[in-house]
Amino acid sequence: MAGKDRTGRLFLTIILAVIMAGLVYSPSFAGKKKINIRFSTWHVPAGADVQKLWIPMLEEMKKRSNGRITYSIYSGGALGKGPDHFDIVKTGLSDMGYATLSWTPGRFPLTDVLSSPIVCPAKWKGAEAGMAMYDKMLSPEFKDVKVLHINNCVMAHLWTTKRVTRLEDMKGMKIRSPGGLQTRAIQALGATPVFMPLGDVYLSMETGVIDGVVTCPALVKAFKLNEVAKYGVPTSFGCVSEGLFVNKRFWKRVPEDLKPLIESVGRDAYKIAGIFDETWYDSIMAEFKTAMEINPLSEAEQKRWDERFSKMLAAWAGELEAKGLPAKKALTTFKEELGKVGVGFNACPF
Questions:
Q1: Topology of the domain covering 33-101+122-150+242-280
Q2: Domains 33-101+122-150+242-280 and 157-238+290-340 share a fold
Q3: Using an 8 Å Cβ cutoff, are 229 and 292 in contact?
Q4: At what angle do helices 181-188 and 299-322 cross, to 10 degrees?
Q5: Which residues pair with 245 in a beta bridge?
Q6: Is the model's pLDDT at 137 over the cut of 50?
Q7: Which of 26, 147, 176, 177 could form a disulfide with 183 if both were Cys (CB 3.0 to 4.6 A apart)?
Q8: pLDDT digits (tens, 9 = 90+) for 158-186
C-alpha cells in the first residue's frame, strides 16, 4: 500500500507540473508579463522636461499597467551626447528615448520641415501636427525605430548679449543654432550660425565667443541662459524637429496588450503632463521679463524677417526637390496641419 501511495503521489505531482507548465505558457498568462523601460534623454536631470514631463509620462504608463511597466531613467549625458540619442534608441542602448533630429543634419531631410519658422507656443499642438505629417509623408525616414510621436518642439526665440530690434542689428553676430532650418534662418538674417552643445552655450555667451542663441524658453531656463542673455527677441524661428522613439527589438518583446497603452501615453505625453502649453509659455516669458530686456519686433519689422525666412524655405525646398524629395508638398501640407490646431505659418512660401 505504501508503494502504491508513493506512486499515486508521484503521478499527481507530475500531473500538477504539466498543468502548471501549461498555465505558465498559455496566452492568458503571457499577457501578465512585466517590462522595465530603460528611458534615455539628453535633457538635464533637474530640468522641467525630466521632472515634469518624462517622469509623469512613465508614471502614467506604470499606473495604467497596474505596475507591470516599470522604468529606469538615463538623462543628461548618461548614455551619450545630445546628437547621439536617436542612435542610442536605435541600437538598443536604451529601450525608449527622446531625440532631437535637427542635431544630425542631412539624416532626416524631409522631417526638417517641422523646424520651419512657425508660431507654436504649445508642444501638444506640435505633436498633433508632427504625427499628421508622419502619417502622410515622413514615416519612410523612421524605418529603424518605433515612433511614438514626432513634433516641432515649441517656438525658439533669439536670446543675445547685444540689443536686437531690427534686421540690420543681426549683421556679423555669431548665434548658436540648434541645427535644422534654424541654421539657414540665422544665415538669412545676416548672422553667422555656430553649432555647439547647449551645455557649452552659457560659457560661450559669458566670454563673448558667441553673441546669442536660438532656442526655446524651456531650455533657456533649464540651462540657466537667462543669467547671461541680456536681451530676448520673441520672434519665432520655429524650433527643432524631435521625437519619442522605441527600439524595435524591445518593441517586439513588449506584451501585445501593453502596446496600445504605451502608444497612447507616448503620443499624448504633453497633454497628460500638462506642460509646455500656452499657459506655461506665458508664465515663463513673464518670468524672463524680470531678468532681461524683451524686445518684440514691430509689425513692419516682423514682416521683413518673415520675408527672409520665406526665401530661405523656398531655397531649401528647391534643393530637396532636385534630389527627388517632395519638399514643396511637405511645406504646404505642414501649413494645412498646423492650421487645424490653430498655429500660424506666415513664412510659408507656397
A1: D-Maltodextrin-Binding Protein; domain 2 (3.40.190)
A2: yes
A3: yes
A4: 130
A5: 97, 147
A6: yes
A7: 177
A8: 999 999 999 999 999 999 998 889 999 99
- Determine the distance from the C-alpha atom of residue 93 to the mean position of all C-alpha atoms in its chain, rounded to a whole number: 18
Q: Is 290 helix (H, G, I), strand (E, B) or coil?
A: coil
State how far the Cα of 149 lies from the Cα of 131, in Å rounded to an integer. 6
Measured between alpha carbons, how far is 181 from 349 in angstroms, rounded to an integer? 14
- CATH superfamily of this structure's domain 157-238+290-340: Bacterial extracellular solute-binding protein, family 7 (3.40.190.170)
Angle formed at CA 152 by CA 100 and CA 233, multiple of 5 degrees: 100
DSSP per-residue codes, 11-66: HHHHHHHHHHHHHHTSHHHHTT--EEEEEE-SS-TTSHHIIIIIHHHHHHHHHHTT
Residue 79, C-alpha cell as written in the block: 548614455
Give the integer Cα–Cα distance in Å for 188 and 182. 10
Domain ranges of the chain: 33-101+122-150+242-280, 157-238+290-340
Residue 282 has phi, psi (to 5 degrees) of: -60, -40
Rounded alpha-carbon distances, angstroms, from residue 239 to 157, 172, 284, 321: 8, 22, 17, 22
- Interhelix angle 55-64/259-267, rounded to 10 degrees, is 150
Distance (Å, whole) CA 106 – CA 87 = 15
CA-based R_g, the chain, Å: 25
- pLDDT-wise least confident of 67-71, 204-208, 232-236: 232-236
Contact 186, 175 (CB under 8 A): yes
Rounded to an integer, the average pLDDT of 41-45 is: 94
Q: What span, in angstroms and rounded, lies between the C-alpha atoms of 334 and 304? A: 22
Both ends of the chain: CA-CA distance in Å? 94
Beta strands in 154-267 (DSSP E): 157-160, 174-176, 192-194, 212-215, 231-233, 242-247
